[in-house]
Amino acid sequence: MAWVYLLVAGLLEVVWAYTMKLSDGFTRLTYSSITIIAMIASFGLLSFALRSLPLGTAYTIWTGIGAVGAFVVGILVLGEVASPMRILAAVLIVSGLVLMKLAS
């Protein structure tokens, strides 16, 4: 169950990063509220996952899901540039996440 908590926590990190962008510096109430709620839920689920997963593994995977997820949302939704170097960087992050999972 800890891995499920961690996965959802990582996905919520993507949600709060995206809605923080949409909040325009916390000047838009709806997106600001979603950001704060998603942050609290993400941290809460991470704390549940940490009950049984090693800190280094859980934190690395949580931040990795958030980083790669935000990268994908940036490209697909916000129209950010998908240069070969940025894609390679994302592939390396995912490779690191897979290795971290295999090592735990």
TrEMBL record:
InterPro entries xrefs: EmrE-like, Small_drug/metabolite_transptr, Small_multidrug_res
Domain of life: Bacteria
Keywords associated with the record: Cell membrane, Membrane, Transmembrane, Transmembrane helix, Transport
Main location, first listed in the record: membrane
Record's subcellular location: Cell membrane
KW Lipid metabolism (keyword) present: no
Membrane topology: Multi-pass membrane protein
One Pfam family in the UniProt entry: Multi_Drug_Res
Transmembrane region(s): 33-50, 57-79, 85-103
Family (UniProt): Belongs to the drug/metabolite transporter (DMT) superfamily. Small multidrug resistance (SMR) (TC 2.A.7.1) family. Gdx/SugE subfamily.
Entry protein name: Guanidinium exporter
Gene: sugE
